[in-house]
Amino acid sequence: MISLFSRKKHVREDGEVTRRHILETAVRLFAEHGYADTTSKMICKEAGVNIAAVNYYFGSRDDLYRAVLEDVHEHIVNERQMEAIMNEGRSAEERLGMILDAYIANIYNSQSWHSRIWAHELIAPSALGGLSFLQGTLTKERTISALLSEITGIPVGDPALNCCVITVMGPYLIMLCVQRDMARTLAPIFHYRGEDMNVYFKELIFSGLHAFAERYRKGELPSAAELPEENPAETV
């Protein structure tokens, strides 16, 4: 005899399966067509559900897209992964290498719809994404900045360290923006295994960081002058 509790548990499990199916369908469609051109009707047709199901699990199309953006951050080296790596009893270089390994694995995933949405929001932010979505990216950048400071000895906030962050992350962010089905045409690097290419990336990155840090310690780098603050009254 099945208890009432068992039936409720089964209903909850079925509901989570349905919710996840709608979300995964939405991720793929938003990745393929962008936020503006993906309609609720398209999502319902592809997922095999009605609009009532979308509204029940997510509230609205906009709320569904917000859930999609959260899912994107979960897949592209989420904060828990970052925290776990940071808590590893390893050197700063080894921990940074682990983060870069996670990025390259995502980049070379042939079904990485999440990367496409991330690229959409980076290049042409939607009304629901924009700065609020990029905040999650900035959180990851701060973690990487702390590691680079430990590796180079350059203080956080120094413009020299900001350049290190851009130099290290630039290749990975560019590759995330290349749609996977276009990658082999646009970038021959995708003809090779990701883990092999990452060995070269990391060799270049760490060699450059050590040389740059040495010049910083010797005071051989020019100082950077801040731009004056704009006067709002003068820019009208």
Tell me briefly what this model is.
The protein is an all-alpha fold and 236 residues long.
Walkthrough of the structure:
There is one protein chain. By secondary structure, the protein is mainly alpha-helical. The protein folds into 2 domains: 60 residues, Homeodomain-like (Arc Repressor Mutant, subunit A, Orthogonal Bundle); 142 residues, Tetracycline Repressor, domain 2, CATH 1.10.357. It is 72% helix and 0% strand. It has 11 helices and no strands. The longest helix has 30 residues. It is elongated, with a radius of gyration of 22 Å.
Describe how the helices and strands are arranged.
Elements: H1 4-33, H2 40-47, H3 51-58, H4 61-75, H5 79-86, H6 92-107, H7 113-123, H8 130-152, H9 159-177, H10 180-186, H11 194-217
Helix pairs in contact: 1-2, 1-4, 1-7, 3-4, 4-7, 5-6, 6-8, 6-9, 6-11, 8-9, 9-11
Q: Could you tell me the radius of gyration in angstroms?
A: 22 Å
Series of H and E elements: HHHHHHHHHHH
- Structural class by helix and strand composition: mainly alpha
How many distinct helices?
A: 11
Tell me the CATH architecture of the largest domain. Answer: Orthogonal Bundle
CATH class of the largest domain: Mainly Alpha
Strands, total number: 0
What is the CATH topology of the largest domain? Tetracycline Repressor, domain 2
Proportion of residues in helical segments: over 70%
- Uncertain regions spanning at least 5 consecutive residues: 7-11
Distance between the termini: 75 Å
Shape: elongated
